[in-house]
From TrEMBL:
<dbReference type="Pfam" id="PF01636">
    <property type="entry name" value="APH"/>
</dbReference>
<keyword id="KW-0046">Antibiotic resistance</keyword>
<dbReference type="GO" id="GO:0005524">
    <property type="term" value="F:ATP binding"/>
</dbReference>
<dbReference type="InterPro" id="IPR011009">
    <property type="entry name" value="Kinase-like_dom_sf"/>
</dbReference>
<keyword id="KW-0547">Nucleotide-binding</keyword>
<keyword id="KW-0479">Metal-binding</keyword>
<keyword id="KW-0808">Transferase</keyword>
<dbReference type="GO" id="GO:0016301">
    <property type="term" value="F:kinase activity"/>
</dbReference>
<keyword id="KW-0418">Kinase</keyword>
<keyword id="KW-0067">ATP-binding</keyword>
<keyword id="KW-0460">Magnesium</keyword>
<feature type="active site" description="Proton acceptor">
    <location>
        <position position="173"/>
    </location>
</feature>
<dbReference type="GO" id="GO:0046677">
    <property type="term" value="P:response to antibiotic"/>
</dbReference>
<dbReference type="InterPro" id="IPR024165">
    <property type="entry name" value="Kan/Strep_kinase"/>
</dbReference>
<feature type="domain" description="Aminoglycoside phosphotransferase">
    <location>
        <begin position="10"/>
        <end position="239"/>
    </location>
</feature>
<feature type="binding site">
    <location>
        <position position="193"/>
    </location>
    <ligand>
        <name>Mg(2+)</name>
    </ligand>
</feature>
<dbReference type="GO" id="GO:0016773">
    <property type="term" value="F:phosphotransferase activity, alcohol group as acceptor"/>
</dbReference>
């Protein structure tokens, strides 16, 4: 893996998908080995695209690539603190900001990236076939079943989800560590980790965010949905995308 060539870089994160993230001042470097270059390059084009829309987030500072060693995506530091670092007193206001920001993201147009449901389910089928599902991502209830049985549930619900599909620009991994907030105003300052950004059903993001609010913040997500503009979220789609996501990593 290509580490940024300087002692001034501090390792801040070792990611799930064989990436390492370093920081030096106001710049983050996300680095991967040769096998991850296409994926990291896809993230780079998504960061550039989102920056072009004026939506708050990191900007691309540089791209380093070496034939044998892999690549590094250098981005500007998004100000503020990640959602998982906010104190409980901040959760109410922060989730309202998050709801309206996701609504704005989902309202963007002319996105060149697609994340079709068929492709996401195919990824899940591949992860399950390789027996690579990470049990840490599953609930106790799901762990009682075989991953192939979880996939069967996804496949069984697919016709329903396709019958009500609402394709919008989704973040694709809308979990709290990927959303930054101003700790004073509790407004969202930006979104990071855009490797899965693309047009997909809006519940891709809503399901992930809502379950995080529940699990990480012990919060009722109703104010989040209200700020997003949904008075009656579709529980079937929330369940569907909540179950599909953990099957796609690995
Ligand atoms: N541009 C950035 N601004 C602020 N923090 C960042 C930035 N890029 C990465 N980070 C920090 O590094 C962590 C890992 O980076 P991320 O792109 O989310 O990788 P992963 O795919 O491993 O989740 C983030 O959760 C965040 O704390
Ligand atoms: Mg992340």
């Amino acid at each position: 893996m290509l580490p940024p060539r300087s002692d001034e870089w501090t390792l801040v994160d070792v990611g799930e998908s064989d990436t390492r993230v370093y920081r030096r001042g106001d710049v983050f470097a996300k680095c991967c080995d040769r096998s991850g270059v296409a994926e990291l390059a896809a993230e780079r084009t998504r960061v550039e695209w989102l920056t072009g829309t004026g939506f708050p987030g990191a900007t691309v500072v540089d791209w380093l690539e070496a034939q044998s060693d892999g690549a590094c995506l250098l981005t500007s530091a998004v100000p503020g603190v990640p959602g998982d670092a906010l104190p409980p007193s901040a959760h109410g206001a922060a989730m309202q900001s998050l709801g309206s920001v996701l609504r704005e993201l989902h309202a963007l147009t002319d996105c060149p990236f697609e994340r079709p449901l068929a492709a996401v389910i195919a990824t899940a089928a591949d992860v399950v076939r390789r027996d690579a599902v990470n049990p840490d991502f599953l609930t106790d209830e799901w762990r009682l079943l075989k991953p192939s049985e979880l996939l069967d549930q996804v496949v069984a619900e697919r016709p329903y989800v396709e019958s009500v599909l609402e394709p919008v620009v989704c973040h694709g991994d809308a979990c709290l560590p990927n959303v930054f907030f101003d700790p004073r105003t509790l407004k969202v300052t930006g979104l990071i980790d855009l490797g899965r950004l693309g047009i997909a059903d809006r519940y891709t993001d809503l399901a992930l965010t809502a379950i995080q609010l529940h699990d990480e913040w012990s919060a009722d997500p109703a104010p989040f949905f209200a700020a997003y503009g949904l008075s009656e979220p579709d529980s079937r789609r929330l369940e569907f995308f909540r179950l599909l996501d953990p099957l796609t990593w690995g």
